[in-house]
Amino acid sequence: KRKNPGELEFHQAVQEVLESLEPVIEKHPEYKKAKILERIVEPERAITFRVAWMDDKGEVQVNRGYRVQFNSAIGPYKGGLRFHPSVNFGVLKFLAFEQIFKNSLTTLPIGGGKGGSDFDPKGKSDAEIMRFCQSFMTELSKYIGPDTDVPAGDIGVGAREIGYLFGQYKRLKNEYTGVLTGKGLKWGGSLIRPEATGYGCVYFAQEMLATRYETFEGKICVVSGSGNVAQYTVEKLNELGAKVVTLSDSNGYIYDPEGIGPEKLEFVKELKNVRRGRISEYAEKYGVGYFEGQKPWNVKCDCAFPSATQNELGSEDAQALVNNGCMLVSEGANMPTVPEGVDIFLNAKILYGPGKAANAGGVATSALEMSQNSMRLSWTREEVDEKLKQIMKSIHKSAYEASKEYGHPGNYVLGANIAGFKKVADAMIEQGLI
Ligand code: NDP
């Protein structure tokens, strides 16, 4: 904390990981000797840069760009770009740090990184978004590459932004490579990548449910957010016979007791991805409740899927979910639950899948996109979906087995941190003092 003042989210993420690792460090003195913990909390490289661009009125705007290249022990840095006014070093360091363990859990050869800008895409025209992306990539291109660092999307960075970023990279480098993932299908993207985080989060939840001989059939689910992760979480839950009754955005949430079925979900996709409108429009269109400024955690449910942003689920929210009989929480977002909330879930012994395990399907499928790009071929939808399913199963298995080995079966926080850490720590030792 002394070294990184004010980086609250980073402190929060590091504290959780280091606490879970205590028994591992005790069992493995070689990690202590090699000062792995001291090394693993220090990014290998972190860059900030000026992003100057011109708005539609001809006025100059200035934002700050970042890339945190945290750990490359097991592969090139990999992690999304976030465009949101709340972005700062602390937020990106937390995300990049989490990404190290998440990427390791996927079993694929990818290191941890994250980047973005405090740029706010809301209310900007397509032309403004393009000019911003081009300026951002002009600097970022100096530090990334298909074998060095392969960014992807995150909050505020979807298909449109990846397109503009890729176009500018190609123009600057004169090469057509898989330097970004989440690309359009016609130009190197992978089938299932848009769906992967949401689908994967539900696959992970299915595995957790199976440990209690349960399925999604007839389960009432609450989902927060209404962006990429939330949309495909709803899609998969619908397929599996669950009923999703909420969605939200930064202004409030909607409650639809009839369920957000496939047709209503199509409306949400068009509303959010094409018109870039507010979720309150859903309430107007379908005549259901809209709760301005509130989050959906007081709604009675069997399962909850926080899919918006960090620390969106407070300790009172966690208590409300438990009191209302919620039996499963699977995190589509990164670190959406505050630490006290996590303790409430763990003490109540509900099935709790932390983001670093539950939402790893997105980055795993990004790594599959990288493989396809390198081989210059494309797998079918079924092939990618099957690989995603198997990866989520194996993440669940390794997190569950680690939780058992260390005496807390079913504690996926502990299990995911330990299973993700070991491979990276061993690689760091084997590669010498770097
Ligand atoms: P999107 O930008 O597509 O959607 C984000 C959603 O969350 C929007 O509904 C947005 O509302 C809401 N939101 C964002 N910030 C806030 C905030 N400060 N308070 C309340 N609501 C907020 O992003 P994604 O769906 O891609 O990402 C959602 C989460 O999932 C993030 O935590 C991300 O890191 C994580 N994640 C994403 C992956 C991916 O593949 N996309 C992979 C793994 C994790 P509004 O429309 O009002 O902005």
UniProtKB/TrEMBL annotation:
Which key words are in the record? NAD, Nucleotide-binding, Oxidoreductase
Check the record and name the InterPro entries matching this protein: Aminoacid_DH-like_N_sf (IPR046346), Glu/Leu/Phe/Val/Trp_DH (IPR006095), Glu/Leu/Phe/Val/Trp_DH_C (IPR006096), Glu/Leu/Phe/Val/Trp_DH_dimer (IPR006097), Glu/Leu/Phe/Val_DH_AS (IPR033524), Glu_DH (IPR014362), Glu_Leu_Phe_Val_DH (IPR050724), NAD(P)-bd_dom_sf (IPR036291)
SMART domains, A to Z: ELFV_dehydrog
Q: Which GO terms describe its biological process?
A: glutamate biosynthetic process
Name one cellular component (GO) term.
cytosol
Q: Which residues are listed for NAD(+) binding in this entry?
A: 197, 228
An example of a Pfam family matching this protein is: ELFV_dehydrog_N
GO MF term set: glutamate dehydrogenase (NADP+) activity; nucleotide binding
Where is substrate annotated to bind?
Answer: 78, 99, 102, 153, 366
Gene3D superfamilies to which the protein is assigned, alphabetical: Glutamate Dehydrogenase, chain A, domain 3, Leucine Dehydrogenase, chain A, domain 1, NAD(P)-binding Rossmann-like Domain
Q: Please list the residues that make up the active site.
A: 114
Residue ranges of every copy of the Glutamate/phenylalanine/leucine/valine/L-tryptophan dehydrogenase C-terminal domain listed in the record: 190-432
Important for catalysis, annotated site positions? 154
Query: NCBIfam families this protein is in?
Result: PRK09414.1 (NF006929)
Q: Tell me what this protein is called.
A: Glutamate dehydrogenase
Native source organism of the sequence: Methanococcus vannielii (strain ATCC 35089 / DSM 1224 / JCM 13029 / OCM 148 / SB)
